[in-house]
Write a structure and sequence with these properties.
heterodimer; A: alpha/beta; six-stranded mixed beta sheet; 10 strands; B: mainly alpha; 10 helices
Chain lengths: ~280, ~260
Amino acid sequence: MFVCIIHFVQIHPVNSTVSDKPLVRLDGVHFAYGEREILRGIDLTVNRGQVVAIMGGSGSGKTTLLRLIGGQLRASAGKLEVDGQDMGALSRAALYALRRRMGMLFQFGALFTDMSVFDNVAFPLREHTNLPAELIRDLVLMKLHAVGLRGAAALMPSELSGGMARRVALARAVALDPMLMLYDEPFAGLDPISLGITGQLIRRLNDALGAASVMVTHDVQASLNLVDYVYFVSEGRIVAHGTPTEIRASNDPFVHQFVHAEADGPVPFHYPAPPLASLLDNIPA
Amino acid sequence: MNALTAILRKLGALAVDGLWRAGFMARFFLAVLRYSGQSFRRLPLTLREIYFSGVLSLLIILVSGLFVGLVLGLQGYDILQRFGSSDALGIMVALSLLRELGPVVAGLLFASRAGSAVTAEIGLMKTTEQLQAMDMMAVNPIARVVAPRFWGGVISMPLLAAMFSAMGIFGGWLIGVVAIGVDDGAFWSQMRASVDFRHDVLNGVIKSIVFGIAVSLIAVFEGYDCQPTAEGVSRAITRTVVSSALAILALDFVLTSFMFRGL
């Protein structure tokens, strides 16, 4: 099966097979750190085969949203289902069973620094399967081949560039053929070539695995070129959503500011503060 | 009045924070024990930590043990010869090391060398999201990362303390017998006659195991609980060394008062 996947990833063009059945469903989800409310009634669905981007400014709550979907945090109100399972009601064992079918790419890869690239990718296979070492070796080499880094198998994470580390982490995240992929800022800090490669890999791996992907990102242009649907989050609420075409054509002031990278708009340039003149002693009234 | 209120508030906050941390540490300890099975089922994980915590600490332990023994030999001879008891040098060196200095000094060195390294490693794994990544791969970081390091420290500590004491006795012999000229036969025979296995050796081993548990728990806890920033890791390492040293000295007093109260 792996050979088929790798073959598919290498030669087939993007061919999304979107299912109508939601894999991830958030219904009125709230979340707060103590008194500080981060999410205020989020409704969102992600279907199988879809790549969905969650965009918004820093501190808007989008990473919290990703952590809720991954079960790292629990919603304080509302319902969150992944593959039909209520994330708020799962025991630790059930959550771990679900996570074996999830993959997550962290912002800077989060590779295990005391392990080689090969061992990093082999890690989930060794932890969760009883496959013989020879088969694990073959699988790891195929996963690394899919991200173009078979030749880097013996390197340590400290010897990789940021883009390479991200690709190794991607190979590790898809090692167990997940049904759901979560990406936390997959394009942050990448050069244009690495960014393009990472974007293509996200799309192709999603389609090859028949998975769903949720991506938290700031990078509007790179994301709009590869995702099926976009949600904009601001101050803990979904303020706009739509397909990339709809988003590009949107007249919504927030979406317009975000897509066209305008300095001022619904998201103000200045952090709230009293007028500057009132703070300067030497300016005559 | 306002200043007093502020001070009281600060003290109250510190007390609540301390209480909260103590409770969290107790729960963390129970979790480590609960998930320790994997450390023994997958022995290479724990053996690797014994190598890092134990074997790599050998040099500092052996060298320090030798110097402590040399000093004990010099000081012990100086004091004992005033009473015409220089033949008892072997007893003094052995009992000092087996009962007190071996476990305590080895524990302090272990906390500085291995405890700080464990805190730094776990803290950096947290800072670089490696622990989160593991958790997201449905691998429990307490079972996979914390428990093997804890048991690696607990197993290493008594062995290091024993080596420290052995090296110290060798240092005392070097100074007393080889350099000063205390009778070789008296040095060893009096030591063998006076050192009781249960009362002296075993109690020393019990102390070193307790110190090993305390230092290892503090080291893994501080790493796991640190703020995921460079400053947070640095503070956690400092806390490990300071808390371990205080814990060793306080526990030593408690254990000594139970073990050697002259009854």
